[in-house]
Amino acid sequence: MKCYADDNDNIRFFRPDMNMKRMNSSMRRLFLPEFDEDAYLECIKELCRVDKDWIPRGEGYSMYIRPTGIATHPYLGVGAAHKAKIYAILSPVGPYYPEGFAPVKLLAGDQYVRAWPGGTGNAKVGGNYGPTILPQMEAAKQGFSQVLWLFGEDHQVTEVGTMNLFLLWEKPDGGKPELVTAPLSRGDILPGVTRDSVLELAREWGDYEVNERNVTMAEVVDAVESGRIIEAFGCGTAAVLSPIEQVRYNGQDLNFPLAKGTSGELCARLWDEITGIQYGKIEHPWSIKID
Asked: For residue 98, is pLDDT > 90?
């Protein structure tokens, strides 16, 4: 999660209750003890009050907060921990895109799998991320920014790098354009706070048919080749929104439109709305001001 300094030098959090719920869910998945979400959030608020001068000012700047839980059980072995500790790591961060949006190119393949049903893909645990570094480095050597993670023999689209993925396209049978992302029901997708925010805003605006369902690469290829694709983007805490301009799949480069030059129109609109809420420029219940 992050905290932000608004134009009046107030500290603001963005949907911190969701971060606390997800951390407790992750603790349960590792059989670590749950904590009082309200009490822990108050501790984090006080920490940010104490370290307020470390929060960088200006658009795109924030304090990155990593609530953390670890076992402190004083014995070696594979079993339930009887002692645990929760704490928070703070780090000032600057704009993810110092010169504006930077659309990314992705490498899609099935050699590596990020997560699977019954695993820990829906929890925020370190074991999800360490194994992704090798594939990421291999993709980087080929000139790609991130890996587009696929699952199953039919190459279902799951996540992009460490972000949730959204696709916007015209449906084959007409009607409203469809905004689609992978569902949480299978347990291999992280319930991102930004993901949920995108879904809620898009449903509120009513311009699109918004669905959480499985999508295969065959559908993506067909949408690109038939000219139905409108845009694609990833979303997460660090980047907020990350436009996608290309995916390489089975040796074929699939190109995505960038109607605004460096992003699609929906991606740009979501960026303005979500960052406006985060910095308190748009009044919204998701922005929590810390007194």
From this structure: no
